[in-house]
Each structure stands twice: as C-alpha cells, then as structure tokens.
Design brief:
The structure holds 2 protein chains of 2 kinds.
Chain A: E1 7-17, E2 28-38, H1 53-60, E3 68-73, E4 76-77, H2 83-89, H3 105-110, H4 125-136
Chain B: H1 2-10, H2 18-37, H3 39-45, H4 49-54, H5 59-81, H6 87-99, H7 104-126, H8 137-162
Helix pairs in contact in B: 2-5, 6-7, 6-8, 7-8
The chains are: A alpha+beta, B mainly alpha.
Chain lengths: 139, 163
Amino acid sequence: MKEADHTILRIQDLFVGYEQHANPKEGIVYGPLTTEIHTPEMIGIIGRNGIGKSTLLRTLTGIQHAISGTIMIRGQEISKISRSDRARLISYVSTEAIHVQNLRVMELVSMGRFPYTNWFGKLTGNDHDILMIPLSGPE
Amino acid sequence: MLKAFVVWSMGSLGNLTAPQLQVLSISLLIGLLLSVFSIRSLNVLLLGENYSRTMGVNIKLVRFIVFVSTSILSGSITAFCGPLAFVGIVVPHLARMLFKTADHKLLVPACFLLGGLLMLLADLISQFPGSQSVLPINSVTAILGVPVVIWVIMVNRRFVNVS
C-alpha cells in the first residue's frame, strides 16, 4: 500500500447499477469492485458494451447512487462531501451530445468554471487564464 | 360582478387602484429577484441534468425556485390585469431570436424589457387613437403572438428533421 497522501480514490466492495426497491440485487450492473487510484496515475477502463463502464463513472461522479459499497475521495466518503466541494474535486465529460442553439464555444467551456464562480457566475481574471488552457490547444 | 368578470377576462392594463398597485409591485419584485438569482443555474442547466449535477447544481432547489418565481409572476399579473395570452410564451423566444444568445444573464433582463415593451405596444393598439371603442388586449397579443409561435414550431420541426 502506498502513502495515504497519494491515494486519491479508494473503492471498496462497490456494486453499481440501478436501484430497484422490490429486489435490490436485480438492478446490479457491475460489482463487486475494490481498487485504489493514486495521484499521478492515468486509468483506462475497458470492457464490452453494457458491462457498466459508464454506470461506474456515473456512480463515481455522484450522478447516481451506488447500490452498496463505499467510495472514498481523498479519504472522504463521497456522500458526505458537499455538492460544491464535490464539483471542485471531480470533473466529468461524457459522450452525451449537447445541442443548444446560439451557445458559443467560449460560453460552453466557461461553464466548467461553474463550481468556482459566485452567485452571479462572474468569471474573474484567474478563471480566464484557466479557460485559455484547453482553448489554446496543444503547444 | 358579472361585468367586472367580463372586463377582467378581456384583459386590461388600466383600472388599478394605488393599493392594488402596491401589492402587484411587491409580488413582481419578489418574482423578478428570484428569477435573477436562478440565472447562473439556468445557464448550466442548458447542458442537461447530468452535467449540472456533476457541477454541483442542486437541481431540485433550482426547479423549485423557478416554479415559485413563475407562479408569483404569472399569478399576480393574471389577478390584476386579466389572462394575457401568448405574452409569456412569445417573449422568451423573441429575446433568443433578437439577441442570438443562450446566456440567461442577457436573456432574463431582455425578457423583462421585451415583455413590458410588447404589452405597451399591445395596449397602444387596443386603444387605437381616433377610435371610440377599445379592443380587448387579448386579441392584440394573440395577433402579435401567434406568428411567433408558428415560427418557433416551424424552426423546431426543421431542427428535428436535420438531426
């Protein structure tokens, strides 16, 4: 086991899927999963269609609840992290297409700063610098 | 009593007493403030529920605020000015069309102003200068509103066919 500082994500006995109240076991898509992810690592998840890759990611981002098991992000149980703190810890880009008329690229990208802005959504100088990182492309 | 109901159902911007105006302006202020507060969340909700959730939007709360704001605004206006058809459905589309943006920071104030402008225009037409009779304001808003509704339906149909 590595140092605790480097463990960014710890998953224990995680079952993911869609909760069905009559029979909770029936909705399980994938599990059990026990693993750890450490900071400089880049992880790929490979599997055939419908095996639960997206369901796992949706559960890890907090879009849907886990059926059972624990997810710890930086030593904190995911459900105990507040909405705004979780939004700062996790970024998620899915394959979901976005069709909004009259939405500019800059406006779309700047929505990624949502968890860091005030009630009016005003971008500060620092936000503009951060936005230019993905927009300027590879060097 | 019946006459009052008929007059109310035709819609009118006039005939309000000062105390009525007080109640109306207070409820309008509350409704408008609530809609201004939801601007930031409405922008992110354009991306859909999943993305909004990962960005920390409390979707249930935002929905509740938008519902309350809409209810206060449309309820108070309907109570004092009568059922004004088409304005609520037309003005947001008109604002999107005119300003060519999806940013609610611009769209929300634009709707406030365009809505007021459209109603004043409708009122002007309904009390047509030089004529003795007064048209019900509802018929004027319908004449102005129906073309926009048809246009929106046509545009959306084309959008579906392409994709």
